[in-house]
Specification:
The protein is an alpha+beta fold. The protein has helices at 60-63, 76-85, 125-128, 205-211, 267-286, 290-302, 319-344, 348-361, 366-378, 382-394, 399-423, 430-433, 440-453, 507-536, 545-550; strands at 10-19, 35-43, 93-98, 104-114, 116-118, 135-143, 159-169, 190-195, 219-226, 243-254. It is elongated.
């Protein structure tokens, strides 16, 4: 791996610079060097004093009578040195001749690249959600070890041993926070350190995060300040002025006990780790270290991000199914606790995702339903909150707590109704929905009408009189229109003046004749339908096998 420095990084380098008397490659660039350095720290692209923002853009500074900004200038040879170092890898030497920047010849060698990083993120929403972060943790690599050697990386569960050199430290800092035992822990002190298990909270949070950026055989300078100096088991107040700077050399890394990822761990170990994360997070939460407690619970939740396939092809004996059920049950407390921390820092949408997952794992979990109801109430989902609270009561949830939340829910409903009434004030008809501005005289008149209407007799309906009209003679037995059929009567009850009324002597015979006619008409209609589509080519006639064999092949 060929590591090349970048702009802004600090390198340990030796270089010498000569001014060219002519073109590059000529006899110039000899004699006394214009500048030189031997194994010194040099920041690539660094400017001593920068121009103040807005200076020279307009005359605002002069109008405000502000003093002129100090403009930082670099020596002319610095740009040539930067260009040479950017092409030179760690442990290599190179030379450069250029006619730019005034014409220079540079010979340089990069001994080490001091990689600088933030060990802990202090600007994200998770870090700042509980208030300003009082501290920081930064690392700078001083030595990368032997070139070409594959070093072991450090992760959760690894055992680490090395040497520690204290650059400076305030008196409040203890050596045990860095896994060391030598005293006093002050500038110039040196000794060994040992971390039994990275990630167990026995060392300070900043140093634990810094070790994950290290590897075997490297040397890092670690600066930790403020709340990141405290291990998980230490409860005390520290300010940002409490600082420790140490140089840590990693001598040995034992990754035999590393936790690994969620896919490689067995369920028994996952359950043990989940219980440990749950208890550690609860202790941190009780001590007021909410940000750290959420981070610990989040590590426990990530243990159960992977489930094994449960279909019959991969799991014929339901082994994976039972194991996944154990994982779902173990993840619910961690999901609920992390959602509690998310809600406190205002991440309501993220907290709802956690609670939805917990209820998916166990739909009858009372605490999950109660907390999701609270969260839905915060999100103005009044209908969903009421449903969760009712289910919580049906499952035997704490009635005083649920009644308190329902009271808060009813108050929010009244506030929402008042808000809606103002918004929809002029949408509907005033006579119906706006009783505050109804005319009192019109209202009294309407009430009198309603009162008088109770004493009025009910309207009576005139009797219906049927009139007999002589219909023209019709052979209704051959007609399928039932509306045109006359009334059927017998000889005895036939009216004397109905000369055109049809008389039926044998009703059964007439009905049989009607059924035969209907079947014949239906058959004829089907035959016409199929003949028409066969003729148009929309249908083909499929002959039986015996008739198809006897016919010609096409």
């Amino acid at each position: 791996f060929r590591e090349v420095p970048r702009v802004g990084q600090v390198v340990c380098a030796s270089f010498a610079v000569w001014r060219l008397e002519g073109e590059p490659g000529s006899s110039g660039g000899k004699g006394e060097a214009a500048a030189s350095s031997a194994s010194a720290a040099y920041r690539i692209g660094e400017i001593g004093r920068r121009v103040a923002p807005g200076s020279g853009v307009d005359d605002l500074d002069a109008w405000l009578q502000l003093p002129a900004a100090c403009v930082g200038r670099r020596a002319e040879w610095c740009a040539a040195v930067d260009e040479c170092l950017l092409e030179c890898a760690r442990g290599e030497a190179c030379s450069l001749e250029t006619d730019e920047h005034g014409g220079w010849r540079v010979e340089a060698e990069v001994h080490e690249i001091f990689v600088e990083r933030d060990a802990v993120d202090t600007t994200s929403a998770k870090a700042t959600g509980f208030g300003p972060v009082s501290g920081y943790a930064k690392t700078r690599r001083l030595s990368a070890g032997e070139a070409g050697r594959r070093a072991r990386e450090i992760g959760d569960g690894c055992r680490v041993e090395g040497e520690l050199c204290v650059v400076f430290a305030t008196k409040e800092v203890s050596a045990s926070w860095f896994g060391a035992s030598f005293e006093p822990f002050e500038a110039g002190a040196r000794g060994s350190f040992r971390v039994g298990r990275v990630g167990d909270g026995s060392i300070c949070e900043g140093f634990d995060a810094a070790l994950r950026q290290c590897s075997e055989g490297t040397t890092y300078r670690v600066v930790v300040a403020g709340e990141f100096l405290l291990p998980d088991g230490v409860v005390r107040e520290v300010s940002q002025e409490t600082v420790a700077c140490v140089d840590a050399t990693i001598l040995r890394v034992d990754d035999s006990g590393a936790s690994g990822d969620a896919m490689s761990l067995d369920m028994e170990r996952k359950e043990r780790l989940a219980l440990d994360y749950k208890e550690r997070g609860a202790a941190l939460w009780a001590a007021g270290r909410c940000r750290r407690a959420e981070a610990v619970w989040n590590k426990g939740v990530k243990l159960f991000n992977f489930i094994k396939p449960e279909d019959s092809g991969f799991d014929p004996h339901d082994v994976h199914l039972r194991e996944n059920e154990r994982g779902r049950a173990a993840s619910i407390p961690l999901l609920l606790n992390e959602a509690l921390a998310m809600r406190k820092r205002g991440a309501l949408a993220e907290a709802k995702l956690n609670l939805d997952e917990a209820i998916d794992n166990n739909g009858n979990h009372v605490k999950a339903l109660f907390r999701r109801g609270q969260l839905r109430l915060d999100l103005d989902d009044l209908v969903g909150a009421k449903d969760d609270f009712r289910r919580c009561l049906d499952l035997g949830g704490p009635k005083p707590d649920v009644d308190k939340e329902l009271k808060r829910l009813r108050k929010r409903e009244r506030q929402q109704d008042a808000k809606d009434s103002k918004y929809f004030h002029r949408v509907f008809d005033d006579e119906i929905y706006d009783d505050k501005r109804v005319d009192p005289d019109r209202l009294d008149a309407r009430r009198r009408e309603l009162r008088d209407a109770k004493h009025k007799p009910a309207p009576t309906r005139a009797p219906v009189v049927k009139q007999v009209v002589d219909a023209p003679p019709a052979d209704w037995t051959r007609s399928y229109d039932t509306k045109r059929r006359p009334k059927i009567v017998t000889k005895d009850d036939r009216p004397p003046d109905s000369r055109h009324t049809t008389v039926i002597d044998d009703l059964d015979a007439e009905l049989e004749e009607i059924e035969d006619d209907e079947q014949e008409a239906l058959r004829k209609a089907k035959e016409d339908y199929y003949n028409t589509h066969i003729g148009l080519g929309n249908m083909k006639l499929h002959l039986p096998q015996d008739q198809a064999d006897s016919g010609p092949s096409r």
